[in-house]
Amino acid sequence: MDQAIYFDYAATTPTKKEVVDEMLPYFTTNFGNPSSVYSIANKSREAVLTAREQIAKAIHAKDDEIFFTSGGTEADNWAIKGVAENYQSKGKHIITSKIEHHAVLHTCEYLEKQGYEVTYLEVDEDGLISVEALKNAIREDTILITIMYANNEIGTIQPIKEIGQIAKENGVLFHTDAVQAIGTEAIDVKEYNIDLLSMSAHKLYGPKGIGALYIKKGTKMKAYIHGGTQERRRRAGTENVPAIVGFGKAIKLAYNNREDNNKKLITLRDKLISEILDKVPYSRLNGHQTKRLANNVNISFEFIEGESLLIMLDMKGICASSGSACTSGSLDPSHVLMAIGLPHEKAHGSLRITLGDRNTEEDVDYLLEVLPDIVKRLRDMSPLYEDFIKKS
Ligand code: PLP
Question: Domain Aminotransferase class V: where (predicted)?
Fold first, then answer.
């Protein structure tokens, strides 16, 4: 292979050329500070307004409900800590799920240390929360439900509309981490009764280090970062104008072409899923079969280590991701795979393939050609597999 084939679009995406082209003048020509009064500053100010409008339109929000952040992590932190701080007189109970991104889970754990109580809802074998369990978890002192739109590892999409309805009926705020869903899912914050929603540009072919939090008008949220008057005094600091412009352009492109893009991704995704399961024995799909992101494939292979699989795929010029966090210094398997009930050994042997706009049918065919052989070679080296074969 001349060039690596990238199958890790859930980790990050390449910034589209049209997006970079749109951003470039804001580094050099239109570099003014949006808070200044002269005309080059007007251009930056207008560009920020345009991007805010583009982002609001994509999720059916109002422009002044969009607040720029440094990315999804900051948006999640702001949403959860913000509600905790501003609604503590009502109560100190938060509901989330066991499969949230660490930006949500670690924020909840931090709040537990500050005296808040958090209920972590279980998920079923497909990664779905139970709406009945959610209803039962709501108490007098519940102030927030924070449930992700779609999972970053297994791609399962939660029943967002039903969750929003339950939150509304019970007078509880609803935050959703939509970092993985934005750009591929049709999101309507009004119809779904979403009060707070986190986004990040680098998952939708925009630049890294920029995201946004949608905060429904009327939600009590005081300043998160103190300083100047930017972001309606709630998140101070000179705006990252080029990145904001890039985010706006990227989200506009994503929603202009959403249905065509999804159609192509779903065809590739379904081909990968059915052929891998068909060609590789002792493999299983993780995540819901249909309530699943258009670009997500997550499969566990018994008797192998995901990390070894990734290294061997890399040697064949393929970039993918695994369900264990060994590379980040921990030997724990993914909390998501554990939550859907996979035993340690199966969770360790999982592979996440996330597709994107540069992937072609040839890429998928190449992966299908090399993967079964790699799995077989790894199994041939595995004492566990040897044992299993002897016994069967
Ligand atoms: N939430 C989810 C579901 C994610 O997948 C990610 C990134 O992987 C984040 C939050 C964090 O976003 P960012 O990288 O913009 O901080």
Answer: 5-367
Mutate to test the pocket of ligand 1, among 70, 96, 152, 321 (most ligand atoms within 8 A of CB): 152
pLDDT digits (tens, 9 = 90+) for 256-290: 999 999 999 999 999 999 999 999 999 999 999 99
Q: Domain extents for the chain?
A: 5-13+257-391, 17-256
267 annotated as a binding-site residue: no
Residue 378: partners with Cβ closer than 8 Å, 6 or more residues away:
303, 304, 305, 308, 309, 312
326 appears as a binding residue in the annotation: yes
- Evaluate whether 175 touches 144 at the Cβ level (below 8 Å): yes
Q: Rounded distance, CA 295 to CA 148, Å?
A: 17
197 CA → ligand 1 middle, Å: 12
Q: Does residue 323 line the site of ligand 1, with CB under 6 A?
A: no
Q: Ligand 1 within 6 A of 71 CB? A: yes
| CA distance between the termini of the chain | 38
C-beta of 356 in contact with ligand 1 (< 6 A): no
Rounded to whole angstroms, how far apart are CA atoms 363 and 196? 38
The model's pLDDT over 199-210, given as tens digits with 9 standing for 90+, comes to 999 999 999 999
Nearest to 225 by CA among 77, 54, 50: 77
**Cβ contact 127:347 at 8 Å:** no
Buried-exposed string 300-315: b where 16+ CB fall within 10 A, e elsewhere: bbbbbbbbbbbebbee
Q: Using the mean position of ligand 1's atoms as its centre, give its distance from the Cα of residue 337 in Å.
A: 18
Q: Is the pLDDT of residue 326 over 50?
A: no
Q: Report the distance separating Cα 331 and Cα 107, nearest Å.
A: 22
Using the mean position of ligand 1's atoms as its centre, give its distance from the Cα of residue 223 in Å. Answer: 22
Q: Could you please state the CATH topology (level 3) that the domain comprising 5-13+257-391 is classified under.
A: Aspartate Aminotransferase, domain 1 (3.90.1150)
pTM across the whole model = 0.97
C-alpha of residue 372 to centroid of ligand 1, in Å: 31
Instruction: Copy the structure tokens of residue 24.
Output: 């470039």
Tokens of 77: 């932190």
CATH (residue range 17-256) = 3.40.640.10
Segment holding 102, helix H or strand E = helix 102-113
DSSP 339-351: HTT--HHHHHTEE
73: which residues sit within 8 A by CB, 6+ positions away?
A: 103, 211
Judge whether 202 is annotated as a binding position. yes
